[in-house]
Amino acid sequence: MDAPERRETLTGRLGALAERPAALRILFICAFVEASFFPLPPDMILVPLSLARPRRAFAAATVCIAGSFAGALAGYMIGATVITGAGDRLISWAGAGSSFEKVLGFYRSNALAALCAAGFTAIPFSVFTIAAGFRHTVPPLEFVAGALLGRGIRFYLLAAALRYGGPYLRRMAGEHLTLVSVLFLLVAAILFFILKAV
């Protein structure tokens, strides 16, 4: 299969995904899972939906934010109950000790900035939400504000890029989806370090 045929196949698949009645429900569930207990990036559904139907980019981003926020609340509860109850043994068993300590360190220095930055890092958001609930490291109201702000900025920026980026950005994303993903992660990393420095 040559390059034009591959592009046509990808475009067809993106269109088919966008047309599925359950597409937004799948996006919500994926965002919920990623924010609560399992690293399943919702971008892998949000990006194709927005590419196939640019006018729906912000609606899809809103669904993604809602799912991510609901998952964040679930993650917070998991941290406050299950993780706090099981303590360090469970964290050590999961092999997340070093990541968990880094997250707790961010929270101790500036919880709101850490949560906003968490929306842009490659670290699964569930690590941050569970850590926030662990021994109530982050007060609930501050957690809600940070989770909404961080995820809102991330997903609306992505939606804006895909909605207003014009045909060139959408074509480039269709042809070089991996490159586009890397670029978004690079921008996310830069924003993370800026917020950390504030």
According to DSSP, the number of beta strands is 0
Query: The biggest beta sheet, please?
Result: none
List the total number of helices. Answer: 10
How far apart the termini lie comes to 49 Å
What is the N-to-C order of secondary-structure elements (H for helix, E for strand)?
HHHHHHHHHH
Low-confidence stretches: none
Helices and strands: which structural class? mainly alpha
Taken together, the total number of domains comes to 1
Give the % helix.
over 70%
Topology:
Elements: H1 3-19, H2 23-36, H3 43-52, H4 57-86, H5 88-93, H6 97-118, H7 125-133, H8 140-164, H9 166-175, H10 177-197
Write a concise synopsis of the structure shown:
The protein has 198 residues and is mostly helical. It has helices at residues 3-19, 23-36, 43-52, 57-86, 88-93, 97-118, 125-133, 140-164, 166-175, 177-197.
